[in-house]
Amino acid sequence: MMIDEKSKDSDNEKNKFGEKFKKDEAKNDTTKSGSIKSSVIKSKRALENIVNENIGYIKSTAPNVHCLTNVVTMQDVANMLLAAGGSAIMAQDIKEMEEITQITSATLLNMGVPSDEKIAAYIAAGKFANKLGHPVIFDPVGVGASNYRKKCAKDILANVHPDIIRCNQEEAKILLEFKNFGREAKNLFDFEKLNIEEADFSTKERLKSDFSENKIGLSEDKENIKIKSNGVESSIKLSEEEQERAAMALAGKYNTVAFISGNIDIISDGENVLKIDGGDSRMRKVSGTGCMLSALCALFAAGAYLSHVSAAGDRSKIQFAETADNKTETGINGSKYDRKHGLSEKYFYTAYSAGKVWKETAKNTGVSTDIKSVGKGTIGTYHSLLFNELEGIIGKGI
Ligand SMILES: Nc1ncnc2c1ncn2[C@@H]1O[C@H](COP(=O)(O)OP(=O)(O)OP(=O)(O)O)[C@@H](O)[C@H]1O
Ligand SMILES: Cc1ncsc1CCO
Predict the structure, then answer these.
(1) CA 135, 154, 258, 194: dihedral to nearest 10 degrees?
(2) Which pLDDT does position 375 carry in this prediction?
(3) How do residues 67-101 score in pLDDT, each as one tens digit?
(4) Domain of 370?
(5) Ligand 1 pocket check: which of 234, 239, 264, 289 to mutate, most ligand atoms within 8 Å of Cβ?
(6) I need a labelling partner for 59 at 20 to 30 A (CA). Which of 27, 48, 230, 377 fits?
(7) What is the CATH number of the domain that holds 132?
(8) How remote is the C-alpha of 115 from its chain's centroid?
(9) Ligand 1 atom closest to residue 280's alpha carbon, by position in its atom list
């Protein structure tokens, strides 16, 4: 069940998400903030329509996702993408990065089992995907587990702009602690523009004071604070409020969409926040549910990207190519990342859609595995049935 869902439509033309969504928004949204350009989505139905619209994009485009990922969960990721109506190609040698990126529509950089050669390939693929305008999804698996992983993540973030960072709570904390990365802290928030209801705990005032007191975790000296990493699973459990702040800060810092998973998933583009609760806690007992979620984020982003390109025609592709150098040059440390095609706004909703579909999949799998007799022995069945449920949800929508 959705517990708190907001969005800001900052520019009527640029930020719209299709006629259907606009109509639903108008029908259901009775709450307007002070600014004419801002609106708050309260309606569960409007968000369901967005998810179903995105599912439709996957069905009509059947995207192929370039997955640079780990050997532990590769097969699950490939099967999950097939069940969801897309497909995967997995590669890891730098020699084929450009060709494979060219024939696919999204690039997933999952850092689960890193090596120097692989990270070099990740950077080559990510840079080329940025250049083509394909969405790039970064999953910094286990980044807190070793200094080597931190270096790998920094190398990737210094060279590649991820459109979505999907991570668990510990991983988010580590990325927030990187020094001299992302935008300058002072550019993180334009508090006056935040579109947040007073009734919500995320008031502008509170964020302002947290920010000035540096509770958000971006002060320069914080990189030395050590948390005892749990490896690929999160060792920390943030409060909902902390998780929300971390998502906003992470998105702001890396000029991206941040998706921080947990018993509640929180997605932010730095200004707006969407949350998804529910699912099933057994997701934690299946290795790779986070890897699969990141791949699903890539699939949904690819569907929206392909629909955008086909709607805009070849001219749009040319525009992507023309702006590509600008994108790559400014990279993640620049604040000039080109958002003018409106795709970054779409990726906020595609990330939400992926998370929502995955939570629904988890919940339905729980129901179909006879919850009353669930003991430790049933986890294998739960794992294998995830794909059935996902296929069903993609088939009929949510
Ligand atoms: N306690 C929970 N209750 C319900 N769902 C959960 C819970 N914890 C995690 N999830 C779900 O499990 C999935 C993976 O999230 P998690 O935070 O465990 O990612 P991760 O650590 O990157 O996973 P992995 O390393 O196993 O691939 C998400 O869909 C998330 O919503
Ligand atoms: C267990 C494990 N180790 C590296 S990647 C991975 C899969 C879950 O992220």
Answers:
(1) -110
(2) 53
(3) 999 999 999 999 999 999 999 999 999 999 999 99
(4) 5-396
(5) 289
(6) 27
(7) 3.40.1190.20
(8) 24
(9) 4
